[in-house]
Amino acid sequence: xxxxxxxxxxxxxxxxxxxxxxxxxxxxxxxxxxxxxxxxxxxxxxxxxxxxxxxxxxxxxxxxxxxxxxxxxxxxxxxxxxxxxxxxxxxxxxxxxxxxxxxxxxxxxxxxxxxxx
Length: 117
Known about the structure:
Layout: E1 4-7, E2 10-13, E3 18-24, E4 33-39, E5 46-51, E6 58-60, E7 68-73, E8 78-83, E9 92-100, E10 103-107, E11 111-116
Parallel strand pairs: 2-11
Antiparallel strand pairs: 1-3, 3-8, 4-5, 4-9, 5-6, 7-8, 9-10, 9-11
């Protein structure tokens, strides 16, 4: 049974920073591809960032490139999303996922990020 639990969301002013965490249960975390997605009100869920299990290669959506950074601590079974220079348009519920691109099998419950202008 895989469980993903996000934390770290909150209210921040534009230009500020937040760090989201996603704690994963289950086996084989170190080899798992992990991703962050977000869904704003009235919009579809969109990809934000992912990190490969093998090699730790990262990928980002153009809208967050240079501002967000995904990382992982395999000893803690945790993946992080460091978000800097936040903008009001980053406001969304942020979800952690485990799987492969195009087939993300497991999802967390989400954490709300609100950026005020």
